[in-house]
Amino acid sequence: MKRLQKRSRFVASPHLEKHTSHRAQWLRASVLGVNDGIVSTASLMLGVLAASSNSTALLTAGIAGLVAGALSMAAGEYVSVSSQKDAENADIAIEDKSIKEHPKEELEELARIYEARGLDKKLAHTVAVKLHTYDAVASHARDELGIEARLKARPVQAAVASAIAFSAGATVPIIAALCSTVETGGWIITGVALGALALSGAIGAVIGGGRKLRASLRVLIGGGLAMAVTYAIGLAVGVGIG
Predict the structure, then answer these.
(1) With CB atoms counted within 10 Å of each terminal CB, which end of the chain scores lower, N or C?
(2) Per-residue pLDDT reduced to its tens digit, 186-234
(3) 13: which residues sit within 8 A by CB, 6+ positions away?
(4) Which of 43, 6, 16 is nearest to 232 (CA)?
């Protein structure tokens, strides 16, 4: 496994190319964390505000949501990405064993993969032989399984990025609440949260190379619906208890 990580490196490009796929792991966790932090904390605070006009309860709910959410996101990301990593490692181990036991068959399998991608039979076989000599396991992992060392799952990275991002997102509605009164809190928290969601979507699109407007609208609509539903439930609960 270490050999796969050491030998599968970036090859320097002779001209400038700004690729973004290598950011996929931490970018996914970060964008998800920020958006979840904003939406879940703002929704929680709006629900509490609708049920009870109490500033202390509002801030307590926000802080509790931040801490619980950050820990939950970190744990969830670590477990899910660890499962992905285990599956990748298991597949690579199977290939490693098969290459040792059936080197000729595995070589021909790799050659057929290159032939299917457009190389003529002789050249495909030559390439397969060269790559088998250089690093057979890495070649099969990349070209047969689609597992690239630089894009492999990293549980700790995903967990840390997710926790930090969630905390940053959750801080937004909390600060909005601190800068408002109980009477204006609902509008300010909602407005600030929606603005932060739109900005988060746009930033994620810029980092990931996507379309800013589409990304912003996607998180804006989803987050707005979540907050509206939570506020309505809180209002219904508050009326029922009152």
Answers:
(1) C
(2) 899 999 999 998 888 787 777 666 777 887 888 888 888 888 888 788 7
(3) none
(4) 43
Kindly state the tokens that stand for 110. 């790799």
How confident is the model over 81-94, as pLDDT tens digits?
888 888 888 888 88
Domain range for residue 167?
23-93+155-231
81-106 burial, b for 16+ CB within 10 Å, e for fewer?
bbebeeebeebbeebbebbeeeeeeb
Task: Tell me the C-alpha distance between 81 and 60, whole Å.
Answer: 31
Asked if residue 88 belongs to a domain, the reply is yes
Cα radius of gyration rounded to whole Å, the chain? 25
Picking from 206, 193, 88, 108, the residue whose alpha carbon sits closest to that of residue 151 is 88
Q: Which residues contact 78 (CB under 8 A, 6 or more apart)?
A: 155, 156, 158, 159
User: Has residue 49 been placed in a domain?
Assistant: yes
3-state helix, strand, coil in the chain (%, to 5): 85, 0, 15
pTM for the model stands at 0.69
Question: Would you give the DSSP letter of residue 14?
Answer: S
